[in-house]
Design brief:
Strand order of the largest sheet: 1-2
Order of helices and strands: HEEHHH
Structural class: mainly alpha
Length: about 130
Amino acid sequence: MRTGYNRNQTTWRRSKKKTSTPEYSGIDQDFLDILQQHTAGNPMNSSIRWTYLKPRGIVSELLKKGYSVSPNIVRYLLKKHEYVKRKAQKNITMGGHPDRNAQFENITQLKQDYLDAGNPVIHQCSPT
């Protein structure tokens, strides 16, 4: 949609629509009450927290409390109350365990003992 045509210019400009949040009294507290049971965080940094609920799930809970909001408003509230998106993070390995080879030797010995006794063993890929 093109809006804001100016005769002095040969191009169309897009006007940005201002977003506003509905002013509900008490929505912040009800929002936090909904998230209270569904909040997790980083034990090393108490300021980092997230919720397992999706914005649409929060919208449905707020609808039950009488608020007519959209997922965009819920995202705004999440940002306002400093909730972050949870994303997968790779952990840095701490190096090999000194007894790592001994662990696999023990497993191999147990496997052979079971086979010698006539018991079934599930074979999986061997460690490389």
